[in-house]
Amino acid sequence: MEFVLVLAIILIFTKIAGDLSVRLGQPSVLGKLIVGVILGPALLGWVQPTDFIHHMSEIGVLLLMFIAGLETDLEQLKKNWKAAFAVAVGGVILPFIGGYGSAMAFGMTQAHALFFGLLFCATSVSISVQTLKDMNQLSSREGTTILGAAVVDDVLVVVLLAVMMSLLGTGADEVSIGLLIGKKALFFVVIAFAGWWLVPRVMKWMAPLRVTETVITAGLIICFAFSYFAEWMGVAGIIGAFAAGIAISQTNFKHEVETKLEPIAYSIFVPVFFVSIGLNVTFDGVGSQILLIVIISLIAIITKWIGGGVGARLTGFDRSSSMAIGAGMISRGEVALIIASTGLTSGLLDPEYFTSVVIMVIVTTLVTPPLLKITFARKKGEARVEQGIEDAHLNG
Hints:
By secondary structure, the protein is mainly alpha-helical. The protein has helices spanning 2-23, 28-39, 51-71, 74-79, 81-105, 110-121, 126-134, 141-167, 177-206, 214-232, 237-249, 254-278, 290-314, 319-328, 333-346, 354-395.
């Protein structure tokens, strides 16, 4: 029964930490992330990264992205697809150059440096989603662009990973690059068809069943089925969950699913996900790599921020909105941790640098909420100033 105690510790400390974070003028998610580091092996050691925590956190991040899909304005997403693509491409090219360059500067081999560059390209917007939700910006033009860019970024990074592993002879030899890209394309075709044709029929079929909570159960079945299919096709499960949320948002059951799912997600599963990120931190053997950690963390933050921001700027966003979008792409989160683990097992990431990479991922995840808050506040401030000038001209 020890897992029950661990769960109780996670729930009480995430709520307290989230409240303290808000009182200090920061998004609640920042406190929840920090408390994961405090409770985990790095400091107190009260919570360990067990299979139970891993599975709970997996459900947590899927539900978080499912809710994001439910709340996404599909028309806004369609309007901003060009911007989303540009943000994703900018957020891949510049970080790759920065990661590759820093690895070469620290004397890594060519193969390891190329993989290091790829690590810097990853983006996980699950943390950004929660922060945007806290600020009521998830359905804004900037918010939907960040979500769209994350989908494109995930596909680009997965394809690049497969290409790299094939070229460097570390595993994906049995899969041709054409087949791999074809699977990604097929995934989006199947998901689009299922979202348009199958999802409404499943919801309508299950809703009248004479058992309790059939609508929310149907929603969860679709969420988990889409997520599993995404993983099976080589796309991140969170993309499948996000697509499931968008599909259900187009039905008459959107409000019921959303209002009943949020209490389940935010009371237990999502807090475990936030804490699980901090559990990856360990300070063993870090002393000799402080300089490396500081440099790669700064490069990871700056290149993603600028790369995504430039992509937004080139597609019509003003400077403050571009900075906000770039900030939303900084977090590497669980996506980079999965890629790092893949590199470790395939020999593309030297075990000596694994801890430093994990800390870099945590740092990018921790800085994202406050940066988003600052950039969106600045955007609002500039909008008010412009409105004031416009009113003065009209009155004059």
